Amino acid sequence: MLLSTKLDDKPLFSITGHPNSLCGYYKFLPENGDTMNINIFLSENGSEVSAGHLISNSSAADWTSFNIPFTSYLNADSARITMSAAAEPKNGVGVLGNSVLYVDNLSFDILITSIPEQPTDRIPGTFILHQNYPNPFNPSTAISFDIPQAVNVKVDIFDITGRRIRTLLDEPKVAGSYDVIWNGTDDTGNSVASGLYVYRLRAGDFIQSKKLLFMK
What's the pLDDT tens digit per position in 131-161? Predict the structure, then answer.
């Protein structure tokens, strides 16, 4: 599959939440020194910035996971993704080569939180860590929790041996109900293996853990 390098023919699509990276899988079979480019652009009220990119000229015959952290952040309402397998661009336009590039299972890594200030009668009365949903999951799952007072909140993912593989949240929060999303990647952006994992909420002196199942 050959993909054009033009940046003006890829439609915008709407997004919600606060994305901080683009995740997915690719296969790339380069020829004659071709380079693979995957670019993500974020827009807010029609103002667009380049948020991140992945560039490689290395062969990847098997499906390979990737995570593109966003270097520019907006309260984006839409996004645009471009992909190319081409020779070195000249004057901003690449020359299409004979390479093959496949991209699949694209998703945003998004941290979603509720509105911090809530009416008094809607503030949770106790600390609660809810079961993730969906479970089992692929490619992502939501972890919900309630806190009745302002505390520092940390949400970690551990493998079954107890090794921490991902910190989803580590910051102060006011009383309220919150969700965080895990997309099955570790702190380096690599996809983890299928299997059973443990997620843990630490909110002040409150600590609770539950299990979840990731299935590829």
Answer: 999 999 988 999 999 999 999 999 999 999 9
Contact call for residues 41 and 19 (beta carbons, < 8 A): no
| CB-based contact 34:61 (threshold 8 Å) | no
pLDDT tens digits for range 84-101: 776 554 444 445 557 788
Task: Quickly count: other Cβ atoms within 10 Å of residue 200's Cβ.
Answer: 15
139 domain-assigned: yes
Task: Determine if the peptide bond prior to 69 is cis (ω within 30°).
Answer: no
What torsion do the CA atoms of 16, 18, 20, 24 make, to the nearest 10 degrees?
A: -20
With 0.85 as the threshold, say if the pTM is over it. no
DSSP 91: T
Residues 125 and 157 in one domain: yes
Retrieve residue 27's tokens. Answer: 């296969």
Q: Please check whether residues 100 and 166 belong to one and the same domain.
A: no
